[in-house]
Amino acid sequence: MPTEARTAGARHFFSRHGTLSKWHPNYEYREGQVEMAEAVESALAEKRHLIVEAGTGTGKTLAYLVPALLSGKRIIVSTGTKNLQEQLFFKDVPFLEQHFTRPLKVCYMKGRSNYACRQKIYDAEKEPVLSGLEEVADFEIIREWEKTTEFGDRSELNTLPESSSAWAKIDARADLCTGQKCANFSRCFITAMHQRALESDIIIVNHHLFFADLALKDENYEGGILPEYHAVVFDEAHELEDVAGQYFGVSVSNYRFQELRRDIAAIGRMKKFGSPELDRILERLDEVSLRFFGLFGTGEGRSAFYGRGSFREENEEIYASLLAVLELIGSHLKLLHNPPEEIIPLFRRTTELREALRFLLEEEGEGYVFWLERRGRGCFLQATPIDVSQILASRLFEQVDTAVLTSATLAVAGGFDYAQKRLGLENARTLVVPGHFNYQKQALLYVPQHLPEPRSPAFPKSAAGEVVEILKHSRGRAFVLFTSYQQMRLVYDTVSLEIDYPTLMQGTGPRRALLEEFRSTPHCVLFATSSFWQGVDVPGEQLSCVIIDKLPFAVPNDPVVNARIESIRQAGGNPFYEYQIPQAAIALKQGFGRLIRSRSDRGVLVLLDHRITKQRYGQVFFDSLPDYGFTTRIADVEKFFNV
Known about the structure:
Rossmann fold; Fumarase C, Chain B, domain 1; 4 domains; seven-stranded parallel β-sheet; 13% strand
C-alpha cells in the first residue's frame, strides 16, 4: 500500500487533486463522498458506531471501502443482496487493487447452499440420487464445472437453469456435512472459503449470512461461520430489523420434515444402515407430519397463531405422535452399530426439529409473535422477536468496536430516531449526505388530486385510467409499483389492454429474467410489487417514470407488524407516528429511488395517493424525500416529457 495513501487519510484520497483523481481520468470530486469517508475513518479509529444516509450518486461503496482498507483492521462488509456483494468483490475491489502496491486481502463469503459439495458430486456418480433427464443433464454440467472451478460458487454456472433441482442435491449445505471427517475436507469449497476469510482483512458477506453467524454464536455453536472481526459495515442497513428477526426467531415447516425423511432414507441406502424397521419409522414420520400440517388449512397467506395451548390440547394425539416419532428416529440413529459419520448431522437435525416444534407449541415465548404462513405447498410455523433492539444491542453493538450502518434510505424527516430505536443503536454518530443529483431539474413528483382514496372500491378503476394517461406521456418506459398483488392484477388487467406499449407483470417469470426483458424492450412497462422496490438499477431513458399506487404502509393485520404495533401501544407510545409512518417513508424513498440513478437521468415520479398532500402526516413523507420538483397537474407531466 503506498505510504501516501496510508498516512494522508480519506480526505487526501478523495480530494480534487488527491490519490483517486490521479488514478481515474474521469474522477468527479464529490464533497459528500469525502465527508462520509472521513466519518467512517474517524469511527474506525475511535471505536465508535456511525449511521450514514448517503443519497444515490454519493459513491458510498468507495467511501467505506477505502477507510476500511486503510484501517489495518479485519472488517466485515455486509450487503443487502448477493448482487451488491458480487459488485463489491468483482468490480470495486479490483478497481482499488490496480493502484495498491500489494494485493488487497479481500474475500467474499456466501451461505453454504451457494457452493457445490465435491463429496456429494462424487457420490451422485455412483448412487441413484438423480431423477429425470433434466436432472441428469444438469448434473453433467455441474460435474464438468467442478473439475476446473476454484471457488465452487453456483453464480459461475451461467449454463445451469435457475430452477435446476439437481443443484439442491449436490450443494454444500450443512444438513449432511461431516466436517473434518469428510474424505474431501481438505479440498472442500467451504474449507477453502473459511481459509480465505482467515487470511483476509476485508470479508464481504450478505446480511443473511451475517445474522446466521450471529445467531449461531448466540446458541454457543463452536466457532460460528465468520472469523473474529473488529468492525462491521452494513450497506443497505434499512433491512437489518427484518433479517435479524428471521435469524433470532424459530421456524419449522413441512418441508423440513420431508427433507429429513428423504436424507435419512438416501444415506441409509448409500451407507447400508437402512432396514425394514427404519423404513417403517420414516413412513410413520411422513404420515404423522402430513396429518399435523394438514391441521392448519390450505388458505394462502400469513396469519397469527393464536391459542396455541388450546390447539395443542385439541390435537394432543397428533402432536404427541409427531414428537414421539422424532424421538424414535433419534434413538434409532443413536443405537446404530458402527454408524457412518453422516449420522451426526442427521441426529443433530432431528433433535433441532423436535426442540423447535416444542418451542412453537409449548413455550410461553414472551417477546415473540407466533404466526403461520401457507405458501404454495409449504406450511411454515414461526416465532419472531417482536423487538430486536435488545438482542442487537447486547449481541452485536456492545460486542464490536465499530458498526457503520449506511443506506440511501435510513433517515426519516432528516433524523435517525426511528432506525436507532428499532435497532438498539444508542449513542451513534449520525450523518446525512445529500444525493449527488439536481433533483429539482431531473425529477418531477406528480400527485393527482382527483382520484378517490386508496381504500375506496372505486380506486382501482380510477387509478388504472390515470396510469394509462401518464404512460401515454412517458411513452411507456415505466415501473408501476404496488403495495399488494391484488391491486397490481386489477390495474394490470385494465391498463395492458388500453396501451400500445409492451407490458410485463411480476409472477410471470423469474425476477432477473423480467428485468432483462424490461431493459432490452423499448417503451416497456413493468407492473410489480415489493421485491422490485429496491435493489433494481435501470439507468437511462429506458426507465423514465415510476408510478406508485399508494403510500406503502405495512399491512396492519400482518402478524409481525400487528405485534410490533401492539407492543408500542402497550408501552404508551404512538405506533402510527413511531413505527408505521417512518417505515412507510423509508419504503417510499426506496421505490422512488429506482428512477434517478445518474446525473443524466430524467423522469417523473407519480404517487396516486393524495393523502400525502391532504393529511397532516404527509409532511413527514415530503421531509424524508429528496427535493424533487412537485406538481398536482397532469399538464406539467406532459410538459416535462416534451422538453
